[in-house]
Automatic annotation (TrEMBL), chains A, B, C, D:
Keywords: Allosteric enzyme, ATP-binding, Cytoplasm, Glycolysis, Kinase, Magnesium, Metal-binding, Nucleotide-binding, Transferase. The gene is pfkA. GO terms for cellular component: 6-phosphofructokinase complex. The lineage of its organism: Bacteria, Pseudomonadati, Bacteroidota, Flavobacteriia, Flavobacteriales. Its EC number is 2.7.1.11. This is ATP-dependent 6-phosphofructokinase.
Length: 328, 328, 328, 328
């Protein structure tokens, strides 16, 4: 990096997650601390192409550390997937004298950043922001911890009514390709079964397990299902199947949906976001590029952005076993 | 009432709601205060028929005032709808020396109580426990206030993500025949539109309203829909209709579901439950029967149970107007 | 009122309370709905004197319905207590073409408004915003319901640890002259005793009551104390007294403090604020002045501002009795 | 370990913390899973000496995963500190055929366990349960994460009112010898300054920092103070000092107190408790003793109990720097 960095752009992209605002705040204040200018890029790559920029100083980001969503908004951009789109974006950045980018988002966001860096040799650092925790190179993505708390609080409420009526509930949580939310929130909520994309339990074993639950004296049960569970049935089909095969239970379905993406971030996510923002800016200032900031062994560490995109985040198999033991 | 009351049975029935436990606690402690015995009847009328009873003293109900659900469980009983079923129930109560009943529940619960009183001249007092607020004779049923808070907290979270992405959300809340939850939570959550069973807005006016919202500079919108809204479409059909007719918005659906029934009761519901329990027991001790305890003009008052069942709770038209003005 | 109103100023003053933002939003949007201009006056009467004004339109108040505090800020002004100060304030209002005022606050705020109206014949309407619920002419002030939920949630947490250790806790809540918060939150939290300014229980009776609690099998106890309780001892002196006279308990103190003033408003407070804002603006437009908007018998109603200031809000004696019965 | 383990006792001791119940549940269910009997020992070492035991099966611990406090209660025992006391305790355990112990608590609890093991060769495994996070051998103690969320939620509320009134708040949080809560919650709550026992900032630097805050345009400020901060003044003395030296701010104090110990555990704490309980029981079954189960590098790992007691948990210096940068 021959050229020294004087102005950094920060952007959120992809699905929003709690903690993104805390990360934006951290990036902006770290820039201010190092006397670097900072520019907010609105609506992700779409706003980058349109030059939807705003100078941000330390005071611009006050009062946002505890807010869900993203004050920079987010959007998906098809145009940025084309070389022309990226060229336009680069032109806007250059016109605005932006020297480097902090990209807050997930796989898609980082892939865009890699293209951009390759084509224009533009310094980029990524911060993983998604509730799904499906990014390689960090044990926790921003928003994951908050989403888990949201889910267990919802299931606690559902359990109140489930146990009052001896009902069985299928609760669908987010996670199309990965079962992190289902697995952790399932254990946290004391679910009797957890169905995740990484494992095909099989409908027969599910029935067996529910029957065992009933026999062991449980009068109500919660089954947590990730959106993309491997049984290959959606949560309503599961309900029908179980009702057809088990008359012992009244079965109900609850799809938690988008509320999982919102809410005030947990302390964990706020602290993580603050640490990641510092590291992202200071890494750029040290001349580093194409890295993602992550949490590894409780330390903030860098992973090459390409690995972050190509790598697979893996679920904790120990937790599956813990879940089994807990449903005794 | 020639015979003096020495033992009171308390029961929850129908859909559970936050505050039922606080009401049970209040009934039990008011009995203890007056040196009356108290018996918990489990699983509603079903448990009454089976004699599923348990003596409760002041200490039995400690630590439950802040718990959702009902420690006495709830159930629906077809058998109680038959004269034979009620005869069995009466026999069990007599065998247990239970002299009078406090029934916590909704319309169905009270209807059962009326039959029972008519057939056996058995003293009964009702306490309205349901989140739907659809009972005549009280401005607030137990659980309604808590459910409203649950719903606005969920919608606050949904709005975080809605406004980050410029999306339109249809949020379905409980209320099959009545729009109380939708109307109050809709105003409380700052919804742009509220669709309730009592009013047919019409699909055209909905589109108009959403277009007006968009033009007035709103980048995201929340529409709150009661389960039983009059437009006659379910929430997913609404989504399809709007997406087909408005390309400006990405539309998403969220069905809040059963979590609305659970959770720790609000202070309002706990206080209301405590007041109602006292009034219910003391009314029985004063020889009153066939009444429902309710909140009217901020005072605890009695309404004949028959009126409570036959009367219609009405939505507050003023709130509809407030909602309209707020979506300016 | 000969002159028609074209521009309304809105202001918050005195201690802030949850729901003030929702009321501001409602005032602003009701103005927009009626095509009236609206101006935000910052920092109460201090900002009025300084002309710290900002035009507000329907979009200016988006996203604030669920926020605690007040976006218009609050302050206390000694200068406004002088005729000169009020003259300066009036001049600023006139220069800004403001025709009428909506004042959100408590007694002090309304007293200022009455003076102002008397001296300049300036139309004012008050909205009661304070957590203390100490205003005559409304059963609920804005923020009271939210504060009650905050307090019971805190006491629920304290009870977790109290009952794990068989401890006695004195929990001090806000309310210097009135016991509304202590009384309602005390009942809601299942407190064993509630000490309020309106009633002198006496130290001896407190000890007796705690001894009775202990004998009846309670292993832990919560005593809720209003700041201004009549026993005339602060909460730490109470602790010392009880520890000196009862060795059965370990005693601890918790002063909840200012967090009671903050937090996202409950649905109840948001709806109430929305209703009050509409009524305040529309009353001004109908030529009314010197009234306070309040909730009476569940209806929004006007009370002469002078009565609101001079009248005494009274605690609900029934609740004291309910509390006694509940500590059986 | 020549003798195989057939019955395990589980106990909580010392200050309670959220997650203790989840850990008890996990210990009990892991025993059930392995067909081992499990006995709950009530009120810590005191109850052990008195033989206050109860058999627990998988169903005994239902519905407690989300409850704060400890169903086994806690107490401090002076008698257990004497050889005679421990002899009595050992006798009771032997009479009840208890072969091994899982001890949930902090330093004091583990020290007792070490004595007990040394004197009677009794197998013990510790689980770190304390909100203070002051145990060597684990990055997170049970309850720490929950306490952080409790603290930031309280400070979020305080900030609402602080920023409405341009006030400075000193907020005292728990942590007599360690600043983990203050440091993490301070960063999470966006505090302007954080005062911890590990670092003597000095009163002068505090004033400077507050002056800088004011000059940089901040209108309100939060200073988080650990109970045992090094400046050597309590939080009320700090207030007086700052008020005497800075007239720019109105200063207020809030002592969060015991509510920090209670509340429903976060998902993080529930999952951690579940994992730790499994590991504790299975380690005993594998013949291990005198270990503490901890979280190290996101894995459940064992640390010799003696090290856990003698080692020092260290605060994360990086966070101090992050905090400095964030207050820019």
């Amino acid at each position: 990096m021959s050229k020294s960095i004087k102005k950094i752009g920060v952007m959120t992209s992809g699905g929003d997650s709690p903690g993104m605002n805390a990360a934006i705040r951290s990036v902006v204040r770290t820039c201010a601390y190092h006397n670097i200018e900072c520019v907010g890029i609105y609506r992700g790559y779409e706003g980058m192409i349109e030059g939807d920029f705003k100078e941000l100083n330390a005071r611009s980001v006050k009062g946002i550390i505890n807010k869900g969503g993203t004050v920079l908004k987010s959007a998906r951009s098809n145009e940025f997937r084309t070389p022309e789109g990226r060229k336009s974006a680069h032109k806007k950045l250059t016109e605005a004298n932006i020297d480097a980018l902090v990209l807050i988002g997930g796989d898609g966001t980082f892939t865009g950043g890699l293209f951009f860096n390759k084509e224009f040799n533009f310094p980029v650092i990524g911060i993983p922001g998604t509730i799904d925790n499906d990014i390689y190179g960090t044990t926790h993505t921003l928003g994951f911890d908050t989403a888990l708390n949201t889910v267990v609080e919802c299931i606690d409420k559902i359990r109140d009514t489930a146990s009052s009526h001896n009902r069985l509930f299928f609760v669908e949580v987010m996670g199309r390709d990965v079962g992190h939310i289902a697995l952790n929130a399932g254990v946290g909520a004391g679910a009797e079964e957890i169905l995740i994309p990484e494992e095909d339990l099989g409908l027969e074993r599910l029935l067996e397990s529910l029957r065992r639950s009933k026999q062991s004296g449980k009068s109500s049960s919660i089954v947590v299902v990730a959106e993309g569970d491997k049984i290959g049935k959606n949560v309503f089909e599961l309900k029908d199947y179980v009702e057809a095969n088990m008359t012992e239970y009244e079965v109900r379905v609850s799809v938690l949906g988008h509320m999982q993406r919102g809410g005030s971030p947990s302390c964990f996510d706020r602290v993580l976001a603050s640490r990641m923002g510092v590291k992202a800016v200071e890494s750029l200032l040290e001349g580093k590029t194409n890295y993602m900031v992550g949490l590894l062994n409780d330390e903030i560490a860098l992973t090459p952005l390409e690995q972050a995109v190509k790598g697979k985040s893996k679920i904790n198999k120990e937790l599956l076993r813990v879940s089994d033991i807990m449903s005794t």
